[in-house]
Amino acid sequence: MSHTVTGAAHTQHTSALRLTTGSSGTAETAALDRMKAVIVLLVPLLLPLVSAQTFRWGPCPTPMVQPNFELDKYLGKWYEIEKLPASFEKGKCIEANYALRPDKTVQVLNVQTYKGKIRTAEGTAIIQDPKEPAKLGVSFSYFTPYAPYWVLSTDYNSISLVYSCTDVLRLFHVDYAWILSRSRILPAEAIYHAKEIFSRDNVDVSKMIPTDQQGCDVPYEQPPAVPYWSYSTSDFWNYVEYFRNIGAYDRINEMARTFFAHQHLGDTLGYEVADQHEH
């Protein structure tokens, strides 16, 4: 995660724009006209910011979320199967890893391969309201607010539907939606059913695109099933890059020593390469 996601609270917005009559109505009408003028001027400035996202007019929808959501069952690894376009997810082999910290916040580690390199993003997720545990907030920086991460439906073992939405002045909104799976492949009928659930809750997923999960056969999070030396050079460097990103330098040293020794380059070169990746 992956995966990052947002949502908005549903209010009766029609009454908010209703004008009163009389002299005060004239003033309110003028104020509303000025607001509309400002919005018209702002939209061209905001559009480039959302051009790579899914942009729609009107406020965010308010889909139903998973009842009796159990965070502990949700933790672990999820693979991205399909998504609404997102500028921060342009790679392949996208996955999201969730782990509970001692302070009860959730560590979020999103991983993707982009232009041949492993990219990671670490953030924090929290349950903002204990009464609605399926509505989490996620942030990837101390300087940004928590963005809603709503779990609409999950069986915890195979599939999860996640939604996120941000609206601007209730004039338009940018939304995100993800179909996640515990495995890299999800049956077509499961994907079809997932999209039906989104549509039922007024989330337009017609622009969803599949995530490439092909060629993601290097199990970075686990020791290789075969000796290090038998991997191709590209797989070796993929391991090095991944372990460097997560700070597992001991794994880099172990790989380098074995790999280069079997390439008849000696142990010293292996350690030198590992040292270069540590700094």
TrEMBL record:
InterPro entries: ApoD_vertbrte (IPR026222), ApolipopD (IPR002969), Calycin (IPR012674), Lipocalin_CS (IPR022272), Lipocln_cytosolic_FA-bd_dom (IPR000566), Otospiralin (IPR028224). Its main location: secreted. Residues 1-18 have a biased composition (Polar residues). PROSITE patterns: LIPOCALIN. One of its GO terms (cellular component) is cytoplasm. The keyword ATP-binding does not apply. This is Apolipoprotein D. It comes from Cirrhinus molitorella.
